[in-house]
């Protein structure tokens, strides 16, 4: 592409138009990824005129397709399997406000341009630029700090317009980078006040607690190293939101956050409605992982009973692997000895889970006997007694008193 870019540079100089390469081609080049197949050329002037001049340098005869969009001031054609699009300086080109570009001007050819050129009133561009910085992990924070100083004037647009960029920050290779910028610029306190409240730090009687906000960002990064799941990363971001409410100092004990998992799970539906997130299966999944986020850690002992492990398998079901990924990511202690001890005990619980699951198949577990079968066995009419018996059978199976098998349950009545 170097030869091709050189011809663009020469053509741009002939018509006195500043020109640069923008978009995903630049990103993929910086990250040494597979070079993107679409190349966007931004020019201060007529994109169509520049495209025509470059096209004529390569193709004297109309053997290639040249497409022109006069309404938008753009034109495109293909070269060596890549689609080249020339974009003119137009008010309609809002989405091409990128922070990184490569200059094709003769006086600074090949120079990497890293400027945001956005105002505090352009919320869409600010959040998109933060998302962009998070995706490529490459930017100067000076421009973001200038936004931070003006954050009092920030007005968040309808959530539908920015949630896609927020999700892309969560899905980036280093989510904490973008989330930290969102926090510094004041956006996070508007979008996710439940998360920023974790930044509150208190000390009493010489006792303090860890920075739960920094811990949360570290957990999100840890999960991102193991999983590309958007919603598991959201679990990591939201798993401690109940701590700011349940936080309590007890003399002689220190800081406690009793039952923060359950409270956090109950807060999540309100958060999902506010962010216009999908409900039903997605909401159930996030709530479930948050609710049981500390359960495997509580089982980290050689005395963990099969009954307790069966119940965890039963309630978490098919999402047990995701829960285990999260729980490993949640171990962020900097004490190497303690971390190794937690990991070793956790691996023991993981083996027990897998062993019991293989033996009894509690994942996606259906009750081995139906309500109709209970009515036939006990000669009952439909009533609340059916539910009581069914629950008793389920509890007996989870306690290991009955095998998870219809024949065994039937002949044990």
UniProtKB/TrEMBL annotation:
GO molecular function, one term: nucleotide binding
CDD domains in the record: HDc (cd00077)
InterPro entries (alphabetical): HD/PDEase_dom, HD_domain, tRNA_CCA-adding_enzyme
Keywords: Nucleotide-binding, Transferase
Domain of life: Bacteria
A Pfam cross-reference name: HD
Keyword Ubl conjugation part of the UniProt annotation: no
Keyword Transferase set for record: yes
Span of domain HD: 213-297
Gene3D superfamilies noted in UniProt: cca-adding enzyme, domain 2 (1.10.3090.10)
Protein name: tRNA nucleotidyltransferase
């Amino acid at each position: 592409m170097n030869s091709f870019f050189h011809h663009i540079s020469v053509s741009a100089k002939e018509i006195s138009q500043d020109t640069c390469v923008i978009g995903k081609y630049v990103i993929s080049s910086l990250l040494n990824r597979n070079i993107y197949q679409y190349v966007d050329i931004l020019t201060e002037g007529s994109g169509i005129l520049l495209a025509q001049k470059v096209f004529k340098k390569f193709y004297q005869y109309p053997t290639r397709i040249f497409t022109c969009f006069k309404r938008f001031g753009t034109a495109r054609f293909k070269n060596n399997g890549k689609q080249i699009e020339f974009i003119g300086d137009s008010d309609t080109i809002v989405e091409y406000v990128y922070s990184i570009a490569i200059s094709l001007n003769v006086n600074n050819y090949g120079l990497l341009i890293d400027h945001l050129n956005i105002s505090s009133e352009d919320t869409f561009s600010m959040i998109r630029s933060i998302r962009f910085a998070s995706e490529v992990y490459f930017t100067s924070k000076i421009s973001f700090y200038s936004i931070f100083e003006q954050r009092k004037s920030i007005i968040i647009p309808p959530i539908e317009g920015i949630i896609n960029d927020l999700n892309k920050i969560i899905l980036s290779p280093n989510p904490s980078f973008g989330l930290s910028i969102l926090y510094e610029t004041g956006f996070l306190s508007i979008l996710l006040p439940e998360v920023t409240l974790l930044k509150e730090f208190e000390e009493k009687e010489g006792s303090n607690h860890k920075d739960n906000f920094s811990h949360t960002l570290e957990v999100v990064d840890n999960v991102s190293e193991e999983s590309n799941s958007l919603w598991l990363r959201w679990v990591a971001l939201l798993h401690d939101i109940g701590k700011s409410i349940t936080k309590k100092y007890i003399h002689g004990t220190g800081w406690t956050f009793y039952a923060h998992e359950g409270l956090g799970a109950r807060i999540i539906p309100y958060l999902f409605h506010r962010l216009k997130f999908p409900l039903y299966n997605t909401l159930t999944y996030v709530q479930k992982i948050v609710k049981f986020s500390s359960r495997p850690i509580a089982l980290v002992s050689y005395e963990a009973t099969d009954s307790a492990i069966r119940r965890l398998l039963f309630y978490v079901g098919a999402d047990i692997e995701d829960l285990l990924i999260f729980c490993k990511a949640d171990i962020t202690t900097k004490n190497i000895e303690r971390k190794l001890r937690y990991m070793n005990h956790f691996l023991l619980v993981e083996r027990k889970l897998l062993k019991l699951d293989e033996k009894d198949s509690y994942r996606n577990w259906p009750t081995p006997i139906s309500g109709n079968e209970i009515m036939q066995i006990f000669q009952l009419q439909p009533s609340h007694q059916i539910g009581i018996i069914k629950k008793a059978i389920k509890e007996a199976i989870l306690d290991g008193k009955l095998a998870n098998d219809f024949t065994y349950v039937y002949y044990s009545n």
